[in-house]
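lol forgot to send this yesterday, sorry. C-alpha cells for the thing we talked abt
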C-alpha cells in the first residue's frame, strides 16, 4: 500500500435531508480514517460532491463546482475529487463526468454508500478512476459511523427509496424501491444518539407514512405483524431523554387518523407536518399520479388543524406540470389562499428524463411557467404571516440552534418549525429555552428570553 499524505476533506451536499444524512455518514468514515474537515474545496485533499438530480438546476450547480476545481487538481495530482448521490444513478450523467471531467477520480451511487471506506482506499492506491454504481441495493444499508453537523440534533433514516412514481419525479429511479429499517435498529440508533448529546431527531423517508410497506391506517402492532408509522413514532416518542421528534416527508394519501392521534398524545412530537400538495387542481393531481384529490387533501388539513393545537403546516408546489391550464393554476392559487400554509416551497416543473411526465406531449412553454411562478410567489408572500398573529405575546419553547449571521442574535425553532430570533448567551445553543414572542416578521418571530 502506498503511504498517503491526504489529511483533509470537504463534503459538498446538494438536495434533501436524505443526502444530508448520507453526507454525515461519508464524513464519519473519513474521520475514522484520520481526515479532518476543512471549508475550502480548493485546499482539501478529498472533495466529495453528494449530488441531487430532482431538478435540472441541481445538476447545473454541480458542473459549476467541479469545473472550478480543475486548477487545484492540476496543482495537487494526489487530490481526490469524488461524486456520489442521486445524479450518479443516471447513466448519462456518469458518461458526461467520465468524458468531460477527467479530474474526477471517484464515482459511486446511492446504493454504494456502505462501501465508501473501501472505495477511498481503492482510489488512493490506483492510478485509474474508480467507478462503482449499483442499480439497486440488495439489502438495507448497514450502520456506518457518522459525523453530525449539529451536536444536539440529527436525522435518522427509517426507510429508503420510494414506490410512488409520481409522474414528474426521478427519486424512485435513483433511490430504488422502498426499504424500511427494523424498529429495533432505529430505536437503538436513536438511543446511541441521545447518549451522544442529541435531543432532537428527524425520522427520514420519502413517504414515512408507508413505513414497513403498510399504509399507516392498517394497525398491526397487536398481532405482531408489521409495524405502522404511527406505531413506530409512538415507540420513538417513549424513548427517555428524547425532547423533540420530527419526521419528513408525509404523503397526503397515507396520512391516517392514527398518526394525528399519536402526535396529539405525545408532547415531544413536534407540531409540524410537511404535507406536499404539488397542485390544487384535480386534473393535474391525477396526471401527477398523486392519488388524492383537492377535496380529500383539504379534509386531511382540516382534521390536522382541528386536532393538533398550534400545528405548523408546510407544503411543496410545482408550477407548469405538463397540461397545466390557466384554470388549473388558479386552482393552486386558491388552494394556498384557503390553506394559509406556514411555509410553501415552490418549484418550476423540471423535465426529468426517464419519468412519465417527460414523455407527455403537452409541456407548458417556459415563458408561461416563469410568469405563473412569479404569480405563485406573490400569492405565497400575500398569505404569509396571516396565521401567526395568534402566537405574538405568548411564551413558547425554542430549541436554540445557533447564531444568526446578520444580527448576531440567537436563532432557534418552535415545535411548529417557526424560527425565533432573540438575544441571549451562546452557551444556550443546543438547549430548549422559553422565549416570549414579541413580534412576527412573517417567516420568523422576534422574541425575548
Ligand atoms: N417525497 C417527497 C418529495 C421529494 S422531492 C414527497 O413526495 O413529497 C421534493 C420536492 O421536489 C417535491 O415535493 C416536488 O415538489 C419537487 N419536485 C420533485 N420532482 C420535481 C420536478 N421534476 N420538477 C419540479 N419539482 C420537482
Ligand atoms: Fe417523488 Fe412522489 Fe416518491 Fe415523493 S412520493 S419521492 S414526489 S415519487
Ligand atoms: Fe435530490 Fe436525491 Fe433527495 S434526487 S431530493 S437528493 S433523494
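and heres what i got for the seq, position by position
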Amino acid at each position: 500500500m502506498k503511504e498517503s499524505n491526504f489529511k483533509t476533506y470537504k463534503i459538498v451536499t446538494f438536495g434533501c435531508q436524505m443526502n444530508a444524512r448520507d453526507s454525515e455518514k461519508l464524513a464519519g468514515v473519513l474521520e475514522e480514517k484520520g481526515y479532518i474537515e476543512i471549508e475550502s474545496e480548493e485546499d482539501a485533499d478529498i472533495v466529495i460532491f453528494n449530488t441531487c438530480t430532482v431538478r435540472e438546476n441541481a445538476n447545473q450547480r454541480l458542473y459549476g463546482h467541479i469545473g472550478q476545481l480543475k486548477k487545484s487538481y492540476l496543482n495537487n495530482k494526489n487530490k481526490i475529487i469524488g461524486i456520489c448521490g442521486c445524479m450518479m444513478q443516471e447513466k448519462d450523467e456518469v458518461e458526461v463526468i467520465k468524458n468531460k471531467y477527467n479530474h474526477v477520480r471517484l464515482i459511486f451511487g446511492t446504493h454504494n454508500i456502505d462501501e465508501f471506506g473501501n472505495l477511498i482506499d481503492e482510489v488512493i492506491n490506483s492510478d485509474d478512476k474508480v467507478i462503482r454504481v449499483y442499480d439497486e441495493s440488495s439489502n438495507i444499508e448497514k450502520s456506518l459511523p457518522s459525523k453530525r453537523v449539529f451536536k444536539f440534533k440529527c436525522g435518522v433514516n427509517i426507510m429508503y427509496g420510494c414506490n410512488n412514481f409520481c409522474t414528474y419525479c426521478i427519486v424512485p429511479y435513483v433511490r430504488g424501491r422502498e426499504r424500511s429499517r427494523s424498529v429495533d435498529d432505529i430505536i437503538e440508533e436513536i438511543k446511541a444518539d441521545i447518549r451522544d448529546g442529541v435531543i432532537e431527531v428527524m425520522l427520514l423517508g420519502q413517504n414515512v407514512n408507508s413505513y414497513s410497506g403498510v399504509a399507516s391506517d392498517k394497525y398491526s402492532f397487536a398481532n405482531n405483524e408489521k409495524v405502522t408509522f404511527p406505531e413506530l413514532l409512538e415507540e420513538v416518542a417513549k424513548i427517555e431523554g428524547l425532547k423533540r421528534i420530527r419526521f419528513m416527508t408525509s404523503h397526503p394519501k397515507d396520512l391516517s387518523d392514527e398518526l394525528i392521534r399519536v402526535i396529539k398524545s405525545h408532547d415531544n412530537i413536534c407540531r409540524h407536518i410537511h404535507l406536499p400538495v404539488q397542485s390544487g387542481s384535480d386534473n393535474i393531481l391525477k396526471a401527477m399520479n398523486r392519488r388524492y384529490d383537492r377535496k380529500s387533501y383539504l379534509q386531511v388539513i382540516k382534521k390536522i388543524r382541528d386536532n393538533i393545537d398550534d400545528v405548523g403546516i408546510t407544503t411543496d408546489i410545482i408550477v407548469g406540470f405538463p397540461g397545466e391550464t390557466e384554470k388549473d393554476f388558479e386552482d393552486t392559487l386558491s388552494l394556498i389562499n384557503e390553506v394559509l400554509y406556514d411555509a410553501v416551497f415552490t418549484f418550476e416543473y423540471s423535465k426529468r428524463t426517464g419519468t412519465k411526465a417527460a414523455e407527455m406531449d403537452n409541456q407548458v412553454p417556459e415563458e408561461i411557467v416563469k410568469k405563473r411562478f412569479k404569480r405563485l410567489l406573490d400569492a405565497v408572500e400575500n398569505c404569509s404571516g396571516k396565521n401567526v398573529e395568534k402566537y405574538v405575546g405568548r411564551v413558547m419553547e425554542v430549541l436554540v440552534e445557533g447564531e444568526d449571521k446578520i444580527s448576531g442574535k440567537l436563532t432557534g425553532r418552535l415545535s411548529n418549525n417557526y424560527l425565533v430570533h432573540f438575544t441571549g448567551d451562546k452557551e444556550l445553543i443546543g438547549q430548549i429555552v422559553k422565549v416570549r414572542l414579541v413580534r412576527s416578521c412573517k417567516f420568523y418571530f422576534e422574541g425575548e428570553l
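Residues 389-448 form a domain with the OB fold (Dihydrolipoamide Acetyltransferase, E2P) fold (CATH 2.40.50.140). anyway ping me if u want another try
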